[in-house]
Amino acid sequence: MMKKVRLGIIGLGAQGGAYASFITEGKVNNMVIGAICDIDPAKKAMAQEKYPDVPFYDNYIDMLESGDVDGIVTCVPHYLHPEMGIEALKRDVHALLEKPAGVYTKQVKELNDFAATKPELTFGIMFNQRTNELYRKVKEIIDNGEIGAIRRTNWIITTWWRPQGYYDQSAWRATWEGEGGGVLVNQAPHQLDLLQWICGMPKKVYSNVKYGYQRNIAVEDEVTTLLDYGNGATGVFITCTHDIIGTDRFEILGDKGKIVVDDSKKVTIKRLHKAESEMSDSMSMQDVMRIFMGGGATEIFAEEVIEFESVWGGQHSAVLENFAANILDGTPLLAPGSDGIHGVALANAIHLSSWLGKEVELPIDEDLYFAELNKKIEEEKSSAILIK
């Protein structure tokens, strides 16, 4: 009987380093560091100084086959997530993938299909915002039908400001070949996951995306997308990396109320006493004047405001702990790895709509997306040659 899960951390950068710290500081129950892997020699020296008793590998396959680890977490460029997940599961090593699950759905589907052949293994994804009590509460309200059927969603999430120096840190960063996209695959995957987790997947998207709009990069730094849920409900999703002031506001309008989330800290829920359609059918203009001009809006709804506190790192630790618990005793996963494909599908659809200049349906044509992505990569390579 395994007592503690020995985690192999692949990639000792900012995220991998944070996970190593959480584990060594005792913030993750039932987990220890089994091994660390990185191809950078400088990281080896750092690991040997900070974690002298932890085996270090410069090849992740060697680590997977060493017997030092029970599970791994992939803190590496996005394209590598599916490959590493498959290679781990092949060797009966549990896999926790960083977000996003991959760059395009075709590779994520291959991962999901293989993981399905290994149901005895734990396959998770680091959607740490699913442990956030605020968003769990919002999902509970929607699932319970407390604000009725969704009519519209609006999420403006522009708190991702990044200066040019951020993009200049590494040659692979903010490139089609190295990262597979910009804000949609780097900063906003959590919101894309939460949006579909809470409100469901749209049926169609139409997007206006700017590439290298305010930064000297090839990928997107400005996104505005119209969502069509297929039942009359619509939505708007806006994100960017050039708004230094930034806004984080998520609104969900239902036929029986509205939820507004501000700064991922405060939730305002307004529950209508009667469905909007009932009031429309029964209220006279005199009633409307009395309520809205006389300040009697509380006659039609009850308001609840809940504020949440968030400790940085706590949500990541919770996913690691839940991953260990699933391995040890079968505790249900908060974020099953197979769920990772939904956010990738949404990001792919937003990209494809902008590349084709038209509305696209979900699920998208995976082969068409892959072909268009490869065109972007080839254009990027040609531009780099010309610059040289």
UniProtKB/TrEMBL annotation:
Domain GFO/IDH/MocA-like oxidoreductase span(s) in chain numbering: 135-259
Protein name: Dehydrogenase
SUPFAM superfamilies linked: Glyceraldehyde-3-phosphate dehydrogenase-like, C-terminal domain, NAD(P)-binding Rossmann-fold domains
Ranges of residues in domain Gfo/Idh/MocA-like oxidoreductase N-terminal: 6-118
Classification via PANTHER family: D-GLUCOSIDE 3-DEHYDROGENASE, UDP-N-ACETYL-2-AMINO-2-DEOXY-D-GLUCURONATE OXIDASE
Pfam family, any one: GFO_IDH_MocA_C3
InterPro entries: Gfo/Idh/MocA-like_OxRdtase_N, Gfo/Idh/MocA_Oxidoreductase, GFO_IDH_MocA-like_dom, NAD(P)-bd_dom_sf
